[in-house]
Structures are given as structure tokens and as C-alpha cells.
Design a protein that fits this description.
single chain; two-stranded antiparallel sheet
């Protein structure tokens, strides 16, 4: 299965708006207790999350996984820091590229692949305000063309 495919659980649409994604990596994620049950139920929020490199390991901060309803005392802290699993070569490449000014590592989506929770992270460069406006104009123009094409086919 290619990276980024599987049963989609959560997506960070704001990341595509705020950043220009240069490269993507598929990472496993270290979970505790009932977290996988909450993830399978789709109770994940990636909106304000980001990844950071510490001690040659990548950690995911700010990802909210709601506590499992039937988990009682085995539940976890919803906003805890989670370790991402990548190959050593990928981590060293990310270390070098993310040290450049203006680059950061953001999670793009979370999905289930062969029973495992995976996170698609991207090496991202922040967009300026005018870049965001330009992207919105292009998106709107594309919608107009598609709408006109559909109207023409109805005739």
C-alpha cells in the first residue's frame, strides 16, 4: 500500500492552507492503553499539532486523542506528547532540512493501515499572506471552470 493510503481517521486541512508542503513521510506512532480504540472511533484532532525533534527522535505535540468512553481508569492524558517512529535515515534527513529558517514539521493526516495507526507528516515551509490569497483565487477559478463545464454538459 502506498504511503498516505488507508482508512482516514483525521486530516489537518489547515496545514495545507498555512504551509507549502515540500516532502511527506509516513510515521508510526507510539500509543498507550485505550488510545487506539479512540483513534479507531475517529476521536482525534490534529488541528494545532506539530512535530519537533528532540534527542534524535521525533515527537508529536498538541494532538488531541479523546479518552475512550469505556476505558475508566486505564484512560490516558488526551494531549500527551507522542513519539513518532521513523527510520534513522529519515530522521537525520528531517533534522538537516528542518534546521533551515522557515521550515517546520506538521502532521497532515492520520489513518489506519493494516491495523496500525499511521501519521503522514510533512516538511513544510510557511506561506505568506499573499500566497494564501493566491491559492484561494486559484481554487475558486478551478471551481468556476468545473461548474461551467457541468452546466455545458447538461445542455
Amino acid at each position: 500500500m502506498p504511503k498516505g493510503t488507508g482508512k482516514m481517521v483525521a486530516q489537518n486541512k489547515k496545514a495545507y492552507h498555512d504551509y507549502a508542503i515540500e516532502e511527506t513521510y509516513e510515521a508510526g506512532i507510539v500509543l498507550q492503553g485505550t488510545e487506539i480504540k479512540s483513534i479507531r472511533a475517529g476521536k482525534v484532532n490534529l488541528k494545532d499539532s506539530y512535530a519537533r525533534i528532540q534527542n534524535n527522535e521525533i515527537y508529536l505535540f498538541g494532538m488531541h486523542v479523546s479518552p475512550y468512553e469505556q476505558g475508566n481508569r486505564y484512560n490516558h492524558d488526551p494531549l500527551r506528547t507522542r513519539k513518532l517512529l521513523l527510520h534513522k535515515k529519515e530522521i537525520s534527513k528531517l533534522i538537516g532540512e528542518s534546521k533551515e529558517v522557515g521550515y517546520s514539521i506538521v502532521p497532515l493526516k492520520m489513518y489506519l493501515k493494516n491495523g496500525y495507526a499511521k501519521v503522514l507528516i510533512g516538511l513544510a515551509r510557511g506561506k505568506k499572506k499573499y500566497d494564501k490569497r493566491e491559492d484561494l483565487k486559484k481554487k475558486e477559478a478551478k471551481r468556476e471552470v468545473e461548474r461551467a463545464f457541468r452546466e455545458r454538459q447538461k445542455m
